[in-house]
Amino acid sequence: MAIEHIVIVGGGTAGWMAAAALSRIRRGRDLGITVIESETIGTVGVGEATIPPLVEFNQALEISERELLSAVQGTFKLGIQFVNWGQVGESYIHPFGNYGYDLGGIGFHQVWHKLREQGDKRPLQLFNLETMAAHFGKFSRTADYARDDLPPMNYAYHINATAYARFLRSYAEKNGVVRREGIVKDVALDGETGFVTGVTMDDDAVIEGDLFVDCTGFRGLLIEQALETGYEEWTHYLPCDRAVALPCNRDDGSPPPPFTRATAHSAGWQWQVPLQHRNGNGHVYCSQFMEADEAHHILVANMAGKPTAEPNHLRFVTGHRKKFWNKNVVALGLASGFMEPLESTSIHLINTGVNKLIATLSLDGITEAQQSTYNRLATKEYARIRDFLVLHYTATRRDDSEFWNYCRTMAIPDSLAEKIEVFKANGQVFREDDELFTTTSWAAVMMGQGITMDGTSPMADAAAHRHGSEIDEMASSIRWLVDRMSPHAQYLAKYCPAS
């Protein structure tokens, strides 16, 4: 059956990202796209930190970066600072760019390790542009200097997610997407195929469709309540199951830093996401070891200013639907699963879900091969991200609470255990297929939290010897470039002041 009408149930960030991207395929086609959304149903709206692929998503939509960041109170993000994860008092930055670059086919962190063994005292962070710029509160885009002999600047955004959804709604509606206000009270299934044929609104109107995108959040109105798809739970590996979110002003007048901060507490961790004129804050915690009142108290006590809203308490179960695409329903956002926002992957998973949908979609109809391909790729992506998140918890030396004792000693996925053991042997990180996190990402977290290399690649000796002057030049170029960058706040004021 040909796809003539796509119905997106649920708005928010997921719904309007899907609508905006899908609206591009309407050009020259008689394809209807409807978004069903209700002003009376709130969105979670706490995912304000992003990762670099979102920059490419907006570029593909031909959205002006200046206009977007101005509309969403946006700031630039060069990485994530992790505080108290290895031990209380320790911190490190997981940067978006690479440490140096490969030398003779060997990862730079392996060559650096060999240099350390030979007496070189320079920290690895000196060889990463994003870390150094973040440390000094500086920022510049690659386009501002555009020199082949200088490293590129890799960045993402901090955004107001609710404002981002509004921005994309305007974009999508200009491209012919229709918004329907109201609440879905019933879902109709075809008696023979089990496909969703339409939804009944609270005013009894029926909206029919050929393909449905479920963006209804945790409840999964279509994917779970109607199709009973099932859920794979990962609470054993990622035990945090609660969060409290709360925005605040920066009462001390401090400028917004160009990085997200994740600070570990006794039974979870706290995020700080700096927008241009306020901070987004939240405390993710495990209800087995902490009550909601204590989590809220810890959050308020560690914010940069007074709260500007009532606390938003959330419950979640880490994991994903057993199928992301079931019959003629594709789940996106929280309807598809939940990965805690430790590495800012929430909006990214919407992004890649939309990309996979467009890549596999045929308007001639829906096939088993399309569903199978989509589900296999999405399942693999979730599993790889899961392993990276679990790494942060298991690679701790903290023994100051029951929560951290559990995390330090819990069983971990075999795929993660293997990755850690290979890294310990000689610093090697194998990035498989189109895995999201890079060699630098894995190395940054492992070394940042105390996992050390017991040896180095046999090729690292030769690389360290042959490329000594080149290595010196790497550090000099980064230092020279950071010295000439503008402070992050000044860059924002000139480039994209918030409207």
From TrEMBL:
Pfam family, one: Trp_halogenase
Residues annotated for 7-chloro-L-tryptophan binding in this entry: 77
Origin superkingdom: Bacteria
Key word Nucleotide-binding present: yes
GO molecular function: monooxygenase activity; nucleotide binding
Positions that bind FAD: 11-14, 184, 334, 347
Active site per the UniProt annotation: 77
Keywords (A to Z) from UniProt: FAD, Flavoprotein, Nucleotide-binding
Binding residues annotated for L-tryptophan, in chain numbering: 343
This protein's name: Tryptophan 7-halogenase
Organism from which the protein derives: Qipengyuania atrilutea
